[in-house]
Specification:
The complex is a heterodimer of chains A (255) and B (261). Chain A has helices spanning 7-29, 47-53, 59-89, 93-103, 110-124, 130-153, 157-166, 171-199, 203-208, 215-219, 222-225, 227-253, and strands spanning 31-33, 43-44. In chain A, 75% of the residues lie in helices and 2% in strands. The longest helix of chain A is centred in the N-terminal third of the chain and has 31 residues, at 59-89. Chain A has a two-stranded antiparallel sheet with strand order 1-2. In chain A, α1 (7-29) packs across α12 (227-253), α6 (130-153) packs across α8 (171-199) and α8 (171-199) packs antiparallel against α12 (227-253). Chain A has two domains: 1-45, no CATH class; 51-253, Orthogonal Bundle (MetI-like fold), CATH 1.10.3720. Chain B is mainly α. Helices cover 77% and strands 0% of the residues of chain B. Chain B starts with a helix and ends with a helix. The mean pLDDT of chain B is 90. Classes of the chains: A mainly alpha (255), B mainly alpha (261). Chains A and B meet through α1, α3, α4, α5 and α6 of A and α1, α3, α4, α5 and α6 of B.
């Protein structure tokens, strides 16, 4: 391994800085009283947590909705994108065409796509449901899942599969013993990215949701009006993502 | 190959259908008559040009700064697996969380303000859009670092070493060996960044000024308008933002080709 750069030490410094910056979120969430110019809260309490847990705030409902939609759209995107990711990873001409087609949504603002889709869904009589939200999120989840998964298929996976086939391994054995372990890191990254894209989706949820509470929509109004609730909601927003990051990192290490 | 069709069809139908429907709402009234009233209203709004310039300024600043920072950072982290892995952590932190953190740290009365007894410049809700640029740069640099390090692998390193043995200096090695390898992911990634910054409005809503708006926040304001045509005006403004993205894509492709020659 080369070590020409001093990347390690400044990286540790950057991560400590990031940790300190992030630490203010739980601190602010737990501070019932923190008046200027104090640099440490005057009083700790559970006002933020109580708000999030209260049925009337809709925060718990919003978090559950966002989690369900993000999980459904990510799993669906991974299943649908798998064959396309193989073609893109193989760098064939058809793979390059697929790459462009699947990346196209990334240049159009989500609110524009959401506005068009909500008109459609209204005409079809299927508007304002978690299912339509999950389907609409697919427009942005599929590109990230597919393009990340394609990186996993760009290596020697197919050679390994061919070798296993010649040695008599059936399709299921090949999938379980060869393909899955070989692309586990890329699959974990793809699922993580897909989940993050849907979990944080704002424009499409605003246009499609028809008032269904979703977590990102809840955070914005509090950013300037109530720092404690904004910080508490941000912690709720961050926890599943960091948990999944840990899982993805473990998948990468155990390759 | 056939198995890859469903995903392409889903994206084309959902995305294509959505864009065509959104475009149609801008040229047809609710009664189904063709009209350009929506576009006339949008183009006559004095806030539109301010929004175009403000969006372009912030988008270009974010894109150029992120790309310029991503290359040296990628150079620093690419040799170790753990530094590469750690450098992408901010990628998964939601934009909104970074925006809320910016308000808590550098907003008026924020922690930096309290610790330093005042900040030299206003960064949150400032008319120059410094807060918007700062939040996006923190978020987008890791994305570009990920793409650049993926392309800056062992094969490129071996070619760099061969060039060094033949007497090529740092600048020459970068110009003729590294740049051709990382150019495509860097340009593609920068375009995705530019498109995202032009089209998303949650970050400007939290850290941006009340005026000028970005194109995305101007569109968002239209969706809150009491009249029925608000959604159509929002769609028209966002289609303009898409046009700007395609314009930037064209310019980036030309720059990339010129460097190729």
């Amino acid at each position: 391994m080369h070590s020409r750069s001093g990347g390690g030490s400044w990286m540790i410094g950057a991560m400590v800085l990031l940790g300190v910056m992030l630490a203010v979120l739980p601190l602010r969430a737990a501070a019932d009283v923190w008046r200027a110019p104090a640099v440490w809260p005057q009083e700790f309490g559970t006002r933020g947590l109580a708000y999030v847990a209260a049925t009337g705030s809709g925060a718990a409902r919003a978090a559950a909705n966002s989690f369900a939609v993000a999980t459904a759209s990510t799993v669906l995107a991974a299943l649908l994108a798998w064959p396309a990711a193989r073609l893109i990873g193989r760098r064939t001409r058809i793979g390059r065409v697929l790459f462009v087609v699947l990346a196209l949504p990334l240049v159009v603002p989500p609110l524009a796509v959401g506005t068009g889709l909500s008109t459609w869904f209204l005409r079809l009589g299927v508007a304002d449901s978690l299912a339509t939200l999950a389907v609409s999120h697919l427009v942005y989840v599929i590109p990230y899942v597919c393009l990340t998964l394609a990186v996993g298929f760009s290596g020697d996976v197919e050679d390994l599969e061919d070798a296993a086939r010649m040695l008599g391994a059936g399709p299921l054995t090949r999938l379980w013993r060869i393909t899955a372990p070989a692309i586990a890191p890329a699959l974990a990254s793809a699922l993580l990215l897909g989940f993050v894209v849907s979990w944080t989706q704002y424009g499409t949820s605003l246009a499609i949701g028809g008032g269904i509470p979703m977590l990102p929509l809840l955070v914005v109004p509090f950013a300037h009006s109530d720092a404690q609730i904004a910080a508490t909601l941000s912690v709720v927003f961050l926890v599943p993502v960091l948990g999944l990051l840990g899982v993805a990192a473990a998948a990468g290490r155990h390759r | 190959m056939v198995a890859a069709l469903p995903v392409a069809v889903i994206v084309v139908v959902l995305f294509g259908g959505a864009v065509v429907t959104a475009a149609a709402t801008t040229v047809r009234d609710p009664a189904g008559r063709w009209t350009l009233d929506v576009w006339r209203e949008v183009l006559a709004d004095p806030a539109l040009m301010d929004a175009v310039w403000f969006s372009l300024r912030t988008t270009l600043a974010v894109t150029v700064l992120s790309a310029a920072l991503a290359v040296p950072i990628a150079a620093g982290v690419r040799n170790r697996l753990w530094t590469k892995a750690v450098s992408v952590v901010p990628l998964v932190i939601p934009h909104l969380t970074v925006a809320v953190l910016a308000v808590l740290w550098v907003g008026p009365g924020g922690l930096a303000d309290r610790l330093l007894g005042g900040l030299p410049l206003q960064m949150i809700r400032d008319r120059a859009g410094i807060g918007i640029v700062a939040v996006y740069v923190i978020k987008e640099v890791p994305f570009l670092v990920l793409l650049v390090t993926a392309a800056w692998g062992e094969a490129t390193r071996e070619r760099e070493e061969a060039a060094a043995v033949l007497g090529a200096g740092l600048v020459t090695r970068f110009r003729f060996v590294t740049w051709p390898a990382i150019r495509l992911p860097l340009v593609t990634g920068s375009l995705i960044v530019a498109a995202f910054v032009l089209g998303a409005f949650e970050v400007p809503l939290v850290v941006g000024p009340s005026y000028p708006p970005t194109l995305a926040t101007l569109a968002f304001e239209q969706t809150r308008a009491p009249d029925l045509a608000g959604g159509a005006r929002a769609a028209a403004i966002l289609l303009l933002a898409t046009g700007l993205t395609l314009l930037l894509a064209g310019m980036a492709a030309r720059v990339a080709r010129r460097h190729d020659a």
